[in-house]
């Protein structure tokens, strides 16, 4: 599952997954996606795992992030 983090908080780290790939969202969406780091309210960007990046390179552009009812479209 993709994660949202701002540029300041940087690459999210998880116990089971790494999120090395950074992608932006269309500006109109970007203003509604906030960083998922604790105590941060900056505009978020999308970070993908290796598998999600492969899907992105194969043409998939919609990914689900935690605490979001709908998927986000990655550009």
Structure summary, number of beta strands: 5
Structural class category: alpha+beta
What is the approximate shape?
Answer: globular
Q: Please trace the helix and strand order, writing H or E for each element.
A: EEHEHEE
Unreliable runs: none
Tell me about this structure.
This protein is of the alpha+beta class. The chain has two helices and five strands, in the order E-E-H-E-H-E-E.
Nutshell version of this structure?
By secondary structure, the protein is an alpha+beta fold.
Which short descriptors sum up this protein?
single chain, 75 residues, alpha+beta, two-stranded antiparallel sheet, 5 strands
Strand-helix topology:
Blueprint: E1 3-5, E2 21-23, H1 27-30, E3 45-48, H2 50-57, E4 62-63, E5 72-73
Antiparallel strand pairs: 1-3, 2-3, 4-5
């Amino acid at each position: 599952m993709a994660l949202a983090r701002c540029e300041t908080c940087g690459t999210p780290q998880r116990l089971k997954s790494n999120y090395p790939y950074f992608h932006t969202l269309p500006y109109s969406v970007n203003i509604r996606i906030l960083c998922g780091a604790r105590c941060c309210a900056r505009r978020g960007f999308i970070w993908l795992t290796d598998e999600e990046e492969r899907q992105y390179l194969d043409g998939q552009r919609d990914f689900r992030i935690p605490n979001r009812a709908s998927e986000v479209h990655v550009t």
